[in-house]
């Protein structure tokens, strides 16, 4: 299953968020992209599974670690929220 399995609007929104998250120069842009990732992950289970495949986790982790960036507090909160949404419901019980 790939990004083509998601409808066109959601796919375009995912790709735009990934691009802004990975290449956004301003902390505000990256913060907004992290918020969009969280929203997308909440909205649809299939999208939630596709977002990590598109590479959102490393930039989100970088945002958490970047304490020196201007506007870092808001960006860190947004990154943490996005990571939590991506992780929600992914745990498995092992017998």
TrEMBL record:
InterPro entries: ARM-like (IPR011989), ARM-type_fold (IPR016024). This is Uncharacterized protein.
